[in-house]
């Protein structure tokens, strides 16, 4: 109900001080790069598909792809030129008791939609990362945290990737070996922000210069927002990949959800708009709402929904 309500709020916002009420479409930030998705649904971070992979393919990835499609197997690192950046990947975890977990994480062969881990396998082929981190949230199953469970699930089901056309002609045995050698499960974080922080500790050990975040279209906008807050948007000694942060959406979302269900609230920035219309800032209100205990928040949301229905003439 909360995401639907925010979409309603966005659709009622005036776009200028002169034009009255105009409708706007909620959009989802799925950009490849490090644009800041401030205010995306989800708790605020602590303050301080043809080829559905990230599009910045480097020479080493082409070499590796050729080898796995039948050429000779080499060292596999593939960093062939001075402009090549050492690449890492974070695969964001999915709560292990989420409805439709297998479809979200592995994908749906019947529709050829890649899940998070199959998308990561494709990136292993095309981007030649030196490290893939499987992140963890606040769940566990069979005595395993999300990161361990998800990594093990991928490796146990690796040959099933042949069900996806994008892996046609690929030596999945070799690709699986690379994934085993280069992937690691992060098992101590409890949420997305900690996942990015703990993942950074692992990435730093591998001297990563370029980072790709992988998650579902309905989760990735917030991952990007949080990453920009945690890492910053300029290269630093602590986060050398911050200026080369990319995102790669998988093909599957949470059950019953679509990318357009994600509401993004940007900070006001237009110079031709009356700034008084943006006080208080909607993004700030939404972030405060997520700091309220869930039971209390639900009451506030229901009250707001009734007010919106009155404004819309349906209440």
TrEMBL record:
Gene3D superfamilies: HUPs (3.40.50.620). It comes from the Eukaryota. This is DUF218 domain-containing protein. It comes from Hemiselmis tepida. The lineage of its organism: Eukaryota, Cryptophyceae, Cryptomonadales, Hemiselmidaceae, Hemiselmis.
């Amino acid at each position: 109900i909360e995401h639907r309500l925010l979409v309603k709020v966005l659709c009622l916002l005036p776009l200028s001080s002169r034009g009255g009420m105009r409708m706007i479409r909620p959009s989802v930030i799925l950009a490849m790069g490090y644009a800041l998705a401030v205010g995306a649904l989800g708790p605020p971070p602590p303050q301080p598909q043809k080829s559905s992979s990230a599009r910045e393919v480097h020479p080493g990835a082409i070499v590796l792809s050729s080898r796995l499609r039948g050429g000779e197997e080499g060292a596999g690192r593939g960093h062939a030129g001075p402009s090549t950046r050492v690449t890492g990947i974070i695969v964001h975890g999915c709560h292990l008791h989420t409805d439709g977990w297998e479809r979200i994480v592995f994908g749906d062969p019947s529709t050829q939609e890649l899940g998070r881990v199959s998308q990561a396998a494709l990136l292993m082929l095309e981007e030649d990362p030196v490290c893939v981190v499987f992140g963890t949230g606040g769940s566990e199953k069979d005595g395993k945290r999300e990161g361990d469970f998800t990594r093990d699930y991928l490796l146990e089901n690796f040959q099933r990737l042949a069900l996806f056309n994008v892996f046609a002609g690929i030596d999945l045995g070799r690709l699986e070996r690379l994934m085993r050698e280069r992937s690691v499960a992060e098992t101590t974080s409890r949420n997305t922000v900690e996942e990015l922080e703990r993942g950074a500790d692992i990435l730093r050990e591998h001297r990563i210069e370029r980072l790709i975040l992988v998650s579902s279209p309905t989760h990735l906008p917030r991952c990007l927002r949080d990453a920009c807050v945690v890492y910053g948007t300029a290269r630093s000694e602590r986060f050398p990949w911050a200026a080369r942060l990319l995102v790669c959406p998988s093909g599957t979302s949470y059950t019953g959800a679509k990318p357009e269900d994600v509401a993004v609230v940007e900070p006001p920035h237009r110079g031709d708009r009356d700034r008084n219309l943006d006080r208080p800032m909607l993004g700030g209100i939404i972030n405060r709402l997520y700091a309220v205990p869930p039971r209390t928040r639900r009451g506030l949301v229901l009250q707001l929904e009734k007010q919106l229905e009155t404004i819309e003439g349906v209440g």
